[in-house]
Amino acid sequence: xxxxxxxxxxxxxxxxxxxxxxxxxxxxxxxxxxxxxxxxxxxxxxxxxxxxxxxxxxxxxxxxxxxxxxxxxxxxxxxxxxxxxxxxxxxxxxxxxxxxxxxxxxxxxxxxxxxxxxxxxxxxxxxxxxxxxxxxxxxxxxxxxxxxxxxxxxxxxxxxxxxxx
Length: 165
Known about the structure:
Layout: E1 3-7, H1 13-26, H2 38-45, E2 52-58, E3 64-72, E4 81-88, H3 97-111, E5 116-123, H4 127-135, E6 139-150, E7 154-164
Parallel strand pairs: 4-5
Antiparallel strand pairs: 1-2, 2-3, 3-4, 5-7, 6-7
């Protein structure tokens, strides 16, 4: 799949919303409230500058197939570490969309002067994400035991993952 990754606009929300809603409602990968309203989801996902939200668009169809948001992980004296979150439309999984989004977030973080990137809440049962992040140089630096209540597996670990830039 040939992709274009570009900055998201408010007009992209209608294309993001269906898979955003499905992923959040599934409750197995994000720590978001399951009953997040569309307006809340939009506000949480479409981040204002200097943060960044992007969409991945299938060049052949013009369809938004994934999205990512990027920000500093903390403020003040911790603002030199970036963070990011990713969502890929499940209908387009396994085609390199997630990898392209993570690589774009790493480019953004380097260009913005961040020294590292940290993910605060990677569900340990989300093995595809863990494997992807590890293949791109992230490592698990800690796990909160039973930090996530998975709808099918009960209480599972929540990884903190990091990589220097």
